[in-house]
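[Solved] Which block belongs to which protein?

Original post:
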Amino acid sequence: MFLDHTDLADLTAFRHDLHRHPELSGEERETAARVQAHLAVLEPDRILTGLGGHGVAAVFSGKAPGPTLLFRCELDALPIPEISEAAYRSGTPGKAHLCGHDGHMAIIAALGRGLARRRPSRGRVVLMFQPAEETGAGAAAVMADPAFDEIRPELSFSLHNLPGLPLGHVALASGPVNCASRGLCALLDGKTAHASMPETGLSPMQALARLMPQLTNLTTGRFPADDFAMVTLTHAVLGEPAFSIAPGRAEIWATLRTLTDAGMADLCARAEAVIAQVAGEEGLNLSYRYEDIYHHCDNAPEAVAHLEQALADEGMAHDTTGLPIRASEDFGRFGACGPSAMLFLGSGEAHPALHNPDYDFPDILIEQGARIFLRTVDNILGLS
């Protein structure tokens, strides 16, 4: 253990402060400022800010040349009201850290403490605090930022806490570990009418009623089979909130999900065909768009081997329990730079699920996650 009781108390307080001040994707200005202030005390060789929006990266360099390792966490919170009696519960109505990103930031900050005391012997370590993971836009924005070329890694690592697994249990596997997904928003336009004369308009009501089951029925295969495809309706709107207007417009949102990117094009085509057929039969104008686009997250065997060695050295058992998972993650985009891998730390078998309003990150995972990552650095780059 490289963190003493004072370190753990400080890191827990840091996590609680982040939890108290959640910010949504693309709005993480104050969160980034808190992270930057925390990192500055560690005196890294360099701090980059404004990456892909509000991203922050701290660089710890060795004296000898070598590869660059990137360890990534997320800055953003969720637009969900929190249910909690904790003293550090969210102070911002309707927003909360309910996916554990505050805890992931604390883990990477803890890794920074270890590197501040023992710099890598060679190469560089980049601690990446990435914006906008919850919209799927953050990793791509960071990598498209010209400043990212200065810290482009040869190996990338990340972790995520996972309720449903025993507390502290480590899950790790090669291959797909997070599904591909994207949000489909379909707009159906007809013609409004007075509510007393609906026959003079063109209502999208029937189309909306038909599309709800038809889109859901596009779900096929059994997860995690290669042909797995899933459609989840997340939002629907019909007309205006008025009693005097027969509706002329409807909107339906659905999340499309496949095990890998290869299956997504087919699912998109099937969903679009269903919507177009129904809209045409009902005489409606149709438009649609895609948002929150996530590629599947694929763990490279080389990167997984490094994490497996670190776990063995730290005496931590691991298996593939619970993997892959249906949730999506944009960390997989870093695989375009070189081998990448994400591991999962159990948050407890009975722990509230991610995105539940009563979820909270278990602080006990801070030390464990940081220890795995510091050992990974030591094994690859050495520590001075």
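(Second protein starts here: sequence line, then its structure tokens.)
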Amino acid sequence: MPIIGPGPDDPEYDDYDPAWKTQDTPFRRWLVEKLTEAGFIGPEWVASLYAPVNRYHGLSREDLDLLAIATRTTIDAVQAAHKADLGQWAREQELRDHPDLAVLDADLDRIRHRS
């Protein structure tokens, strides 16, 4: 049976987005901060591996264990940072789905920063 559309080897469908290398997310910032505090060499590189994973595939028990050890924190701390990031991501998705809310959000941010 012929494949209609891009094939399985098409880069568009390889489950990778180049923006993941630099996408600024709360979890990425948390990882870089904690890895830097722990004296880890190359925290940005590690963050570029795990920050996209937490949003698109979740974090496995092994990921949580590894990140807790590397950041010298606890599994609960890693999960809290992960869940906070997912919360922000859900809000971003909601704003994308309802562009009119983006205008309201920007207005509320301006009002908050005035004080």
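Accepted answer:
You had them paired correctly. Confirming on the second one: Residues 1-5 have pLDDT under 50 and may be disordered.
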